[in-house]
Amino acid sequence: MRSPHAIIKSHIATEKSHIMRDRQNCYVFEVASEANKIDIRRAVEELFNVNVKDVATINVRGKMKRLGRFIGKRPNWKKAIVTLAKGDTITELENI
């Protein structure tokens, strides 16, 4: 089993993620591409000491980008939307 820090790469703080956090008690993370829902659930529970109710994952395709005449592609990445049990919050991420 991989370490929780290797599975959860970063927290995604956007306007939409803040609305989801306030209304639905959901938190959005960038996770390792090879991580599955069970790994993500265990990592969040271990890192933040909360009870996870549900995990949804999305594979995000990298965008094509240009720099002058050169064309490149951003890497693909995986996003996880984690719903916590009622009454649980991640206090470390509330101020972001």
Provide mean pLDDT, rounded.
95
Continuous helix count: 3
Shape: globular
Number of strands: 6
Topology order in helix (H) and strand (E) letters: HEHEHEEEE
Q: Which regions have little confidence, pLDDT < 50, spanning 5+ residues?
A: none
CATH class: Alpha Beta
- The CATH level-2 architecture is identified as 2-Layer Sandwich
Structural class: alpha+beta
Can you tell me the number of structural domains?
1
Query: What is the helix content?
Result: 25-40%
Adjacency order of strands in the biggest sheet: 1-2-6-3
Query: What is the alpha-carbon Rg in Å?
Result: 15 Å
* Beta-strand content: 35-45%
Largest sheet: 4 strands, antiparallel
Descriptive account of the structure:
The structure is a single chain. By secondary structure, the protein is α+β, with helices and mostly antiparallel strands. The chain has a single domain (4-87), classed as Alpha-Beta Plaits (2-Layer Sandwich), CATH 3.30.70. Helices cover 27% and strands 36% of the residues. The strands form two sheets. Strands 1-2-6-3 form a four-stranded antiparallel sheet. A two-stranded antiparallel ribbon has the order 4-5.
Briefly characterize the structure:
With 96 residues, the protein is an alpha+beta fold. It has helices spanning 4-7, 15-24, 37-48; strands at residues 8-11, 26-31, 52-60, 64-67, 70-73, 77-84.
Topology:
Elements lengths: L3 H4 E4 L3 H10 L1 E6 L5 H12 L3 E9 L3 E4 L2 E4 L3 E8 L12
Antiparallel strand pairs: 1-2, 2-6, 3-6, 4-5
